[in-house]
Write a structure and sequence with these properties.
single chain; 187 residues; alpha/beta; Glutaredoxin; six-stranded mixed β-sheet; 6 helices
């Protein structure tokens, strides 16, 4: 009975995910070419106004998105390694209630600040009307929901930004952060 209880507890915490990963390279773009002003996106002003970090990462996730569950582990690792080195990270939880979004963040022990996105539920009718979708479309991201998605801002420079239309390639984001934030040897 005890073994069964322990197994069930562990099994509840571990979600079996069989969706393939969506790893994408960082793409550096001129944000001025978008019809949507970067500061209109949820999370941008919140991240930049809090403090002047060397690097700001705004990550857009949805609690029901399988690739966001994969990405949560990467975000936790990045945050834990670099938050003391002038990195500001914020999660923008799209298409989910505050309750489900908080449960997602708690499940993966995500300690960075979290805000809600423009839609608090999955709604195909309205998804094309929000600034986040319009910005992604301008950046040639044709995915319907567009999560995970990341915006990287270095030294507060809003004109040239990095975007990732999917999951981070861990080695690539870690090298970028190491190069800009700390003098550590990568393993």
């Amino acid at each position: 009975m005890l073994v069964c209880t322990i197994y069930n507890h562990i099994n509840c915490r571990v979600q079996v995910m069989d969706k393939p990963h969506e790893y994408e390279n960082i793409e550096w773009i001129n944000s001025n070419q978008s019809r949507i002003q970067l500061s209109l996106l949820p999370g941008i002003n919140e991240s930049l106004n809090n403090r002047k970090a060397k690097i700001n990462i705004v990550s857009y996730l949805a609690e029901w998105c399988p690739n966001c569950h994969y990405e949560a582990i990467t975000l936790k690792n990045i945050y834990n390694e670099f938050y003391k080195h002038d990195l500001e990270m914020i999660l923008v939880m799209n298409y989910s209630s505050i309750y489900k979004s908080k449960k997602f963040a708690e499940r993966y022990e995500l300690k960075m600040r979290m805000i809600l996105g423009e839609l608090n539920k999955k709604n195909k009718k309205n998804v094309n009307e929000i600034a986040f979708t319009k910005f992604r479309n301008d950046a040639s991201d044709s995915r319907i929901w567009g999560t995970p998605f990341h915006i990287i801002i270095i030294q507060g420079e809003m004109n040239k930004i990095g975007i990732v239309k999917g999951e981070f390639i861990y080695k690539e984001i870690r090298e970028l952060l190491s190069d800009h934030l700390v003098d550590i040897k990568l393993q």
